Structure prediction request, 341 residues.
Amino acid sequence: MSSARRMEVPWTREFVPLNGVTTHIVKCGYWLQTSTPTNRLLFLIIPGNPGVIQYYERFMECLYWASEGEVPVWGVSHTGHVYDPSNLAKRSSPSQHESQSSRPSTDSLNNGQHADEPFTLKGQINNKIEFINKHVPEDVRLILLGHSIGCYMILKMLDALSPRRVFRCFLLFPTIERMAASPNGTVATPLLRWLRWLAVGAAHSISFLSPRVKYRLVLWHFGANKTSNNIPECIYNATMEIFTPSCLANVLFLANEEMQQVDKLDADLVSRHADKLCLYYGQSDSWCPREYFYNVRDRKLKCDIRLCNRGYEHAFVIKASDEMADIVWGWFQSHNLEESS
Prediction:
């Protein structure tokens, strides 16, 4: 492992059009020439919210090192959460329309009038499916790796993907039920519904500051929370995206939809794909508390479900990317050996 960790990591960062809007993609590695069409695998990360895949770059490279470069690790940002400097996206988001006018009726959100927009929860799911269908070679078997709301997206994607394409799904700190009823959700729901425009307005004001000043604000934020020790540089760089008003508007728009739509656990969906599902819950996670772990476990849905005993936080990428990559890699190897035997 130590020698593998010195391996140079080949990065590719690009924007690709998905459902008419460009989306940020980060790729760590490609398949080796020794790989054959029958054994090519790909870790594909679906992030939480904010859906800036750059937050996961340290985690991605640790997974890549663990496989000694044999399994590429790609990540798909949520559409509209990363600013495209080329301005290829000509279509404006529903959250941008809302921010340009007076606060809209909440009925327009609840009644699903934006159901086909690429920035909604449903739209983000469809964008990931389109990326797989158009940009991942058909012979490649997917190891889908979700975090937070990314886990919910993966569950909803599974019925639309061919079973032979999906090798395994690792769902880390999964927000797949009762988000508004969670400890964090009870606080966030009214704020997201009525006051998110204030945050967008603040971001608009901050956007006039120089990049150096904004970066210092990011350092101050993490330093004030006493989490700055050993934080990967990618965390600071990813947070800079939130200062873009349109990106923050899309982040909060999606968060509001999560509170409204992620409610009852879809036990039938989990049961249908249980043989591919590995769920990892936190000991004290205010987005998906331990009772949610027990709820899934006690239903005996036959998926591989584990409760963290190391105290890692919901936003594990800030302080535990290396450790979580080791857990996922070891977990993957155990299932890979089972399938090979």
Remarks:
- The CA atoms of residues 125 and 169 lie 15 Å apart.
- The first strand starts at residue 11 and ends at 18.
- Strands lie at 11-18, 21-28, 41-46, 73-76, 141-147, 166-172, 277-281, 304-307.
